[in-house]
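chain below, 145 aa
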Amino acid sequence: MRVSTPPPGPHLPFFVYGTLRPGEVNHDLFLLGRTLNEEPALFPGAVLYDGPGYPYALEEPAGRVAGELVTARPEAYAGLLTELDRLEEYRPGDPRNLYERVVREVMVGNGDRRAAWVYVAAPAVAARLRSRGRRIEGGDWRARR
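prediction:
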């Protein structure tokens, strides 16, 4: 489900679905010791495509992507947001972005829906992937191997 604006209050958690998941290459580099909670979650309304060593989520109504909902420690939030934007090559308003950071609802294990930051494929990347990319069936980056 699309969420147009972040809710007021504390910082939003991040939904991670690729190299930032526990056990993947970027988890410990960016998240270790900087989170309060990490829990399994699903991003409904999205599918996953293989990239050059990392995945891209593309919004499509019939799909779902598996990942984790990561809640950052308050004192680490601003720095983590900056670092994740850099990692994902996201700059607000830049047409050369690989990803766009958007607010979407994700579903945690007990069925609750929560607003979170999600990095989805930028429009030009999404168009290229839809025309000639390789979709990861089942929407789980870990299961692709």
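Confidence is low (pLDDT under 50) at residues 1-9. The radius of gyration is 14 Å.
thats it, cya
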